[in-house]
Design brief:
mainly beta, elongated
Amino acid sequence: GRSTELQLAIVDLAGRSDLLATQFRLRYRVDEQADDRAPNFRTVFDGEVPNSLVSREFNRFTVNVGELPINRRYLAPGNRVRMEITAVRSLGGRSADQRLEWRGIIRR
């Protein structure tokens, strides 16, 4: 997606999302170079993703990145971005973090 429609889909391959509490953190970085020189990534968002922006259907989570307080120009098609998302999974008093990374160009 693009702009406010940009979403990340994350699948729980263990299939235990119904038992675990899950909270997401996101670091959104965008390359500010407009040409083919060495990339110069700048962090434009780094924080917790509110639960209201995450939906779950069985073992598939959808994170509405486009609804986060990120300037729309950084969500536009053609931007080279790096997204690091950390899922904090909890059960009772125990928790574990898992970090995922996506790099690419936002397409239409």
